[in-house]
Structures are given as C-alpha cells and as structure tokens.
Design brief:
The protein has about 160 residues and is α/β, with parallel strands linked by helices. Helix 1 links the parallel strand 3 and strand 4. Helix 3 crosses helix 5 and helix 4 packs across helix 5. The chain contains six helices and seven strands. The radius of gyration is 17 Å and the shape is globular.
C-alpha cells in the first residue's frame, strides 16, 4: 500500500526535499501524525550547497503544477540536475515537452509512480537519461552557448 509520498511495491523510496516556504509548511502539516520515515525536509539550503546534496540523489524530481507560467518556462533546476548527471522525472508542461526524449514526463500520480517502479527495476535506462541530459548541458544549455547565440543575433 502506498502513502502519498511513495512506497512502491514494498520498496521504500527515500525523498529528500530541499527548500522552504508555504509548500514546505503544507508538507509538514500533512506529515503530522503519519509515519513518513522516508521523507526528509531539509528546508532552506544555500545554492552552493545544493550540488553537495544532489550527489546523494538517484533521481531528481520537478513536481510543477501545470499552468500558464509553468507551460512557458524552462526550469533552471532541470539543467542543474543534468549537470550532475541525474535523470529527471517531471510533471508534463508544454516547455518540458521539448525535452521529452531526455526527461521522464508524467501527467498524474499514477504516471509518476510508474516511473519510480521502473527506476527501481532498471536503473540503467534512467542513468542513460542523466548522461544524455549532461551532454545537452555541455553542448547547448550553458552560458557560453547562450552568449554565442546572443552575440550572433546582436552583431
């Protein structure tokens, strides 16, 4: 039986959530009285410390709600996760569909948990996605590439 944070076919999945704000408060309130030993809320983490934490991750998660704003943005976190070769599971948005061959996009919780189950059974496929994302960042999605594009457009 699953709880909302994700027990999957008897395998316990550990979640480490970084960040602060109203969503953290909602999670804390939702966690009260439940045994969610697989959930660690780390609160605010300095940006320079995030990469240290991400070395312990097996999989990164972008849990966007789909709306006009998220359909229009490409989250910086995606490229940071890829920089450290993490495979990424994300809620489907119009912008993230541009990366459908390198991301695991889900539409609902059932889809999210299917990806988690698949990950537990075959990490190699997911690690390949992390490596593919890393290559994209090195080749295309970095400040040097953007500077070149901007300078070609302006000059």
């Amino acid at each position: 039986q699953r709880n909302w944070i994700g027990k999957s076919e008897g395998a316990e999945i550990d979640f480490e959530i970084l960040g602060d704000g109203p969503v953290r408060q909602k999670i804390t309130e939702g966690k009260a009285g439940e045994n969610l030993s697989n959930l660690r809320l780390l609160g605010h983490v300095k940006h320079e410390e995030i990469f240290h934490h991400s070395r312990n991750f097996d999989l990164a998660w972008i849990p966007f709600l789909r709306n006009k704003i998220t359909d229009s943005v490409s989250p910086i976190k995606l490229f940071e996760y890829w920089l450290v070769q993490l495979p990424v599971v994300a809620r489907r948005t119009l912008e993230l569909e541009n990366f459908a061959d390198t991301l695991l996009l889900y539409d609902d919780w059932a889809g999210f948990f299917r990806y988690i189950d698949t990950f537990l059974q075959n990490r190699y496929v997911y690690d390949t996605l992390g490596l593919r994302g890393h290559q994209l960042v090195k080749e295309k999605y970095n400040w040097e590439s953007y500077a070149k594009i901007f300078s070609e457009q302006i000059l």
